[in-house]
Amino acid sequence: MKRYLLLGVSVVLCLTLFLLSTEEDTAAEEDTTSVATHKTILIQNVNIVPMTHETILQKRSVLITDGVLEYIGTDDKYQIETADIVIDGSGQYLAPGLQDLHTHLDFMLDRSEPIGQHELKIFLSFGVTTILNQGEFAIPLGDGIEQLKQAIDSGSIPGPKLYTASYVRSPGMGTRLQTVTNKKEAGELVQASKAAGYEVMKVYHGISVESYEGVLEAAEKLNMPVIGHPLMALPLEKTLAMGLDLIAHAESFTYSYFNNEIQYDKIPDAVKTYLKYKPVIATTMVLEEKVSKLWGGDPTVFEHFISGPNMEFVHPTVIDDWRATVLDRWTGGDMDELNKINPFIQTYFKALHAAGAKFVMGTDGPNVIGVPGYGVHEELQYLTSLGLSPFEAIKIATKNAGEFLDEHQLSKIKSGTIEIGNKADLILIKSNPLNDVRNLLQISTVIAGNRLYDEKSIMMMKQQVSEYNANW
Ligand SMILES: [Zn+2]
To answer: What secondary structure letter does DSSP report for 365?
Structure first.
């Protein structure tokens, strides 16, 4: 296994990647953790956490046919003979699979190492059954995306259902690839992205107003939702009026509404402005917490983070990449002032939430010291520490995320709640998550449509990745 150049979000992209991209099938061939599909799966005597509203349906039977929830009820007699596989759910809880709508897979970074495939497995192992990847370095545009999606859908690579956004970056932001300078270029990039297999556009804050409008207009014509960092050059209200569908980070209000000033008295106005347009907002609150601790560039803080739980599932080169790019990204400035920012973000986040803002789960992981999948659990725990109930937090990672995908016709079938007719993306857990979100970590089975990963196969996937990383 040769060492290669791993490139992070903020580093310059070079052609090395293109040269390496011919070896793409290496990892898929050696994979031993893909599982069989099941026509019918019956779970008996299980407590359901439907996430439609705050309730537990006790001792139910659930029949899954061809990856769809066909029956939920108390009568289990007539299905038991017909099911391919029967699970005794006694004493356990069945919840919707978790969804992370702001990720950055490292799949595109290197095809000679199975880093991206391993990240997908780890997402799944932690109960994440859907992700929306918000841009990656694909040269040419979209290279490998369709194959990756097909490999996941067919089960040859275990992983969550993958949706992908093509990004339009601010000029000078790391790589200059995929940026635009005018409306015409914006339209062309959107069209090329659609043709390359992306379903969503992601647009950054530093492009011109004209280009930003160009992306939104072209995307609307092609029925592609747009995720955005609100524009730097315009007040938030004007960006929202253009029709942004998803704000990539809750913290975006800091620059786009508050002008990078701590203004507690303006929070009610910010909430009012948001509510006029009400796009969905990806949380990414743990990211802000970590960034706030990294201000000042103290290497001991970094070492503390990378010695945290589950870091064995992150490839060493990804950690090296963080070390090279994250530490010096937030140095300088007045620490007393900087330390006031995160409490301010928390305060307006809570105000937005209290006012009915629609959040979806977003970790930005494994960008900036996040473990794939586990990052969702960290985010859920963090949200409850800010005062959200476990139900409110889990809803962000299930029902709300599923609704976003459904409303924008990204998903062919509804997900995010346990209801008849929905996709059977489910996690079976040992304790009630509505008592404590940490219980979501006690996963005994992950069901992704017609595929079932029991405790043993989850352990195998984790072991395969951690051993690979340890021996690299
Ligand atoms: Zn991101």
So the answer is: B
